[in-house]
Amino acid sequence: MNVLMIGLDPTLAIDNGAENSKNRHITYGKYLSKLIIITKVPKKVNTKKLSENVIVHPVSSKNILFFIFKSFKISEKICKLEKIDIIMTQDPIFTGIVGYTISKRYKIPLIVQLHGDFLDNKHWLNRSFINRVLNTIGKYILKKSNGVRVVSRRLEKYAKKVCTNIVFNIPIYNDLERFEKCNTTLDKHNLTKYRNKKIILFVGRLAPEKNVPALIKALAIVVKKYPNTVLMIVGDGPERKKLEKLVAKLELENNVVFIGAVKPDKVVNYYGLCDTLVLPSNFEGWGRVVVEACACGKPVIMTDVGCAGEVIINGKSGLVVPVGNVEALAEKLIYLINNVSIAKKMGKTGKKIVIKHNIEETAKKIAKMCKVVANESSHGHSKN
């Protein structure tokens, strides 16, 4: 089975990129004849061979439209030189456009991956007119694909509602070994002034969809009762200045610390420091940081998105609150501060849930998905 994958993960082509991502795709390749990956990178780098049968073709482009054009040209060349059995795209929009066009031209079955619950999501749609256009494109390509891979039951339910093709629920695998053994101290990070504080942690890109303002506003309620509570924000992004202004406006300078961007292998240290991780997103695909925090044995509060209901089971492995509900978020934070033993029990339950995942099993499921879609398409079920 030869698979052409079109994605947006630059770490696959960069020498110092995340080894977790590279190793994951190498394992996928073990169960395929060949895995050829086209991916977007910010600057020009050479084609990379991850293993004997896993090859990465980087496409240098800072503009997504140029990436679509360039990756289409490279995909054409590959399809002329290789016998490709399946085309797989990382999303139903940008890489989906390329995959759908190549699939139709060369009559190759298409699998579209859906990693986020942004389609038909009012928070995403209301951000711009362009998003509404992209929403129409994404739904069209989902319907025209031969198979859809989703990463949660929430997305499986959505995909089955909008299209009639085969839907496969295969969650994203995370290498959790280093998170299971997390052990760190405030001293190591020059954060000793936060000793004896209740530490709430946010990890992620500071972008609108993460809705960090809701967490900061919830913190303002919490500190009235528990002034020793501190929010550590790990990550950077376009919203940082707005968030800093909000912190100043709410007079929370002594209760919020912006850590900034942290290398992937160092993030585990901050999970080790915190009492609770909070993910206040408006929408999510799965929630990688939630899984990592659970692997560290930390209780999680998250909005009803992504892996809520699967990894974070309300009242058991964490707490789930409605999207955008600041008062509910503050209430749950206060609840965990008041109930330390319950918080620890939730952390232990979450750890048991996430450590059972296996990369080999995930790779086998992906290979089986490709085989099923190829067989179905060869029997006249193509939608292209």
Largest sheet: 8 strands, mixed
CATH topological fold name of the largest domain:
Rossmann fold
The mean pLDDT is 91
What's the number of extended β-strand segments?
Answer: 14
Helix content: 40-55%
Please state the CA-atom Rg, rounded to the nearest Å.
22 Å
> How do the strands line up in the largest sheet?
3-4-2-1-5-6-7-8
The structural domain count equals: 2
Strand content: 15-25%
Low-confidence stretches: none
Q: What is the name of the CATH class of the largest domain?
A: Alpha Beta
**The CATH homologous superfamily of the largest domain:** Glycogen Phosphorylase B
Structural class: alpha/beta
The general outline is elongated
Describe the structure.
The chain is α/β, with parallel strands linked by helices and 384 residues long. It folds into two domains: 2-173 and 358-381, Glycogen Phosphorylase B (Rossmann fold, 3-Layer(aba) Sandwich), CATH 3.40.50.2000; 177-354, Rossmann fold (3-Layer(aba) Sandwich), CATH 3.40.50. It is built from 14 helices and 14 strands. The strands form two sheets. An eight-stranded mixed beta sheet has the order 3-4-2-1-5-6-7-8, sandwiched between helices. The protein has a six-stranded parallel beta sheet with strand order 11-10-9-12-13-14, sandwiched between helices. Helix 3 links the parallel strand 5 (86-89) and strand 6 (110-114). It is elongated and about 65 Å long. The relative contact order is 0.12.
